[in-house]
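Predict structure. Input: DNA-binding NarL/FixJ family response regulator, 269 residues.
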Amino acid sequence: MTETAAMIDNRKRSHLENGWSTALRADAGRYRGHDGSSGPRVDEDADSSAGAPCTVVIEPRIFFRDCVLASLENVAPATRFLAFGSVEEWAQSDAVLETDLVVLWRAADDVSPGSVEDIGKQVTTVRGASAEAPLALMSNHEDLDFVQKVMDAGANAFIPTSLGLKATIRVFDLVRAGGAFIPASCLASAARPHAAQAPGSAELAGLFSPKQLAVARALRKGMPNKLIAYELNMCESTVKVHVRTIMKKLKARNRTEVAFLTQSLGTPG
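Output follows.
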């Protein structure tokens, strides 16, 4: 190597060490996990936003978790996001008190006969750590039966990965506000077996009491029991009784089927 080439090589090395490596160290600090590992944590303004409500993403795969967090922060910069490798790690952290939404990720490759039971355990852990924080599950496994079981296990929303980032942020807002969400594709699949037997409005009026009709309309809007109780000035326990009665009379297995079997009540507003 000539003297000139050596000088250029040294300058390049110096630039890498003092420039690019500094940027990489800054990024590494930004995405350092709560346990000091390489998992993402929070944005660069963590000190100023500490204590503010945050949306928590649970995903054990570090690279995928980093990508998800960076994408969400890019689309919703005003929202504070944190990420953890497991529900248990989150439940043992100080972030529990600041969490306004928990998002679980479940890849189709990880869906097995025991998946719903495992998700149910995670839901129980989340509820035990924070009774107020709603929970959403995101997955690329959009099987109707799987979605129904996830919702029955206690999730407030099922968000498919086919949904765009901006739409996903809107769903996050809906769930934080007390709503529920499942994709339209699943609703359409649920409707097909029951379309021919869905009762008309007159039949529903004769089948249900006025209060049960009001609860049924609220179910069509995806409202949780607590919000239905507030809107209709009822006790939450009374709402639960009405929901069970409605499902029994319609022979519906879950709230999704109730929504379609009461479609004659009109489009949710």
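The domain at 193-265 is CATH 1.10.10.10 (Arc Repressor Mutant, subunit A).
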